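Today's session is about reading a structure prediction critically. Students often jump straight to the picture, but the first step is always the sequence itself: look for stretches that repeat, for charged clusters, for runs of hydrophobic residues. Only then move on to the predicted structure, which in these notes is written as discrete structure tokens rather than atom positions. Here is the chain we will use throughout the hour.
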Amino acid sequence: MGPTAAGKTASAIQLVERFPLEIISVDSALIYKEMDIGTAKPDTKTLAKAPHRLISFLDPKESYSVAVFCEQAKQAIAEIHDKGKIPLLVGGTMMYYRALQNGLAELPEADAEIRTKIEAEAKDLGWQAIHDQLKIVDAASAARIHPNDPQRIQRALEVFLISGVPLSQLLKISQSKAFKYDSLKLVIGPEQRRQLDASIALRFQAMLDAGFLEEVETLQRRGDLNLELASMRCVGYRQAWKYLLGELSKKEMIEQTIKATEQLAKRQYTWLKSEAERHWYDSDQTRVSSLSGECSLQLRSNNLFDLVEKYCEIDSS
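Below is the predicted structure for this chain, in token form.
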């Protein structure tokens, strides 16, 4: 696991070269065909050396879900085990990791009327009062959700009002569908998010140099894609799309893309910091190439390889 632009692919390739591993991508952008440069997809040479499952299989106009990912990932894991190898899950889509580990709860669909009612009450009384209401009906969720997180407070209370069952209880039920394999959690990237900023900017410039705008222009010419699709909401594509339509200047497009990427990294760090039993390995950002797994990423400690070697030996025994 790791934040965007931290060198996950390069690290994974080094591990595949040394151990009996096969890569499964955990990335909600790499799934799409025809979207290679802007998603920092490994190039053909890299994929020949270290094949990735669950990339480049979905047309950008098609929809995808975390539930489908979980099913496909579990199937890929089983196939790799059948070959006598160990799956190496690589990517930065933290929601996919969490769903695969913890299972998916069957939650009720959103109810616009109930949401409006909660929002109106919050406007009158404040979100602290709504959080206090949540404590009464679902103390476990209230303890987990910060009083300054209105979106999650609203959803937890909404679930209870629709189903009559606390969200925390529904999530416990989902544990029966949880990931049953022993796993080793590795985080690649600098522990301080601000250290990524230079890498993010350099990588996007490399994408532009590699023909990212031409890639987006080709997608526009298809005529069946638009900014409402999940594929076009991938970081960089929306901004480039608007630039090509004349809605943004090139400077604005670059600035907005870099800012959106930094915001993505911030959300990823929040997930990563909360991940239990993780092993965090800093990476030398000065050695990370922007687009390809051919980069010469140097981890500051060989303990990563020692840890994986020990894990592989335990698993194979």
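Discussion point for the tutorial: Confidence is low (pLDDT under 50) at residues 285-301.
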